[in-house]
Amino acid sequence: MHEGQARAYTNIALIKYWGKKNEELILPMNNSLSLTLDAFYTETSVSFSSQLQADTFVLDGKLQESAATAKVSRFLDLAREAAGTQLRATVKSTNFVPTAAGLASSASGMAALAAATNAALGLELSDSDLSRLARRGSGSACRSIFGGFVEWEQGEDDQTSLAHPVASDYFEDDLAMLFVLINDKQKDVSSRDGMRRTVATSAFYPGWLQSTPQDLATLKAAIAQKDFTTLGETTEANGLKMHATTLAAVPPFTYWSPQSLVAMDLVRSLRARGSECYFTMDAGPNVKVLCRRQDEAFIKAAFAEIFTPERLILAHAGPGIQYF
């Protein structure tokens, strides 16, 4: 029996990853930059045994069907090849984050699986190698290996596409992010399908791709200078551009809901009244509000006038992979 356990936290992209240039290796079309957060995480245990005839996958206490288990098995095959073993495994994973609702559950889930597998098989992977491995399960998972600000280099092949921390002089400790949970149900269009559709058909996608490198450079400069205003403005603009690509896809689609628009409008209203905050959204209806830590209580209270308390969760900068 070979066992490993790990915890990984979600990350929210400030400069978005949207589109792949290589589906098999999960190589993105552009670099991205995220902030790992402490509010949501996944804990995973992996046990390899000669007594098992097939892999099994248990998520949140429920044995998963063949499609989900097959995805986990394909990922485990990469680690088995590296370890030179054919042992099958039992994977038990608990998501302390709603699954498939645009809250980065796949990032924390696959990062935790990569780390637990690394421990179980004694691979002794470096964080860089672990980031490469996690990427093969879910692109954004490569960023959840690290805490704080993290950049994912798009690379050109399996070796050069990986994440690394971004030096910040602890700027992230001054920040907070309010999660406004509009909907925790599975979305109609998955991130993977949404990316494929926009890359293949959206008239706006070339503009998104062309403008993102400058957004990334601006954001990294803002981090280096601890410039919250530029950080927020760039984050909000980049997220809106990503979502605009879905409206020009064929057929068009959106991850927004009416309540998403209410939350975005409140952010703009708060800014106009002197409370500086900015929003971003991933592939789902939930809105994330970036603010300074000193303002988090006031901003959360403003949202509590519209949204019920269980729909509002505050997060701060979170750590990288944890083994236990």
Description:
With 324 residues, this protein is α+β, with helices and mostly antiparallel strands. The chain contains eight helices and 14 strands. The longest helix is centred in the middle third of the chain and has 21 residues, at 205-225. The two termini are 17 Å apart.
Sheet with the most strands? 8 strands, mixed
What is the mean predicted local confidence, pLDDT? Answer: 95
How much of the residues is beta strand, in percent? 25-35%
What series of H and E elements makes up the topology?
A: EEEEEEHEHHEEEHHHHEEHEE
What is the helix tally? 8
Helix content percent band:
25-40%
Shape: globular
Which structural class is indicated by helix and strand composition?
A: alpha+beta
Count of distinct strands = 14
CA-to-CA gap between the ends?
Answer: 17 Å
Question: What oligomeric assembly is this protein in?
Answer: single chain
Rounded Rg:
19 Å
Sequence stretches where pLDDT stays below 50 over 5 or more residues: none
Question: What is this entry, summarized?
Answer:
The chain has 324 residues and is α+β, with helices and mostly antiparallel strands. The protein has eight helices and 14 strands.
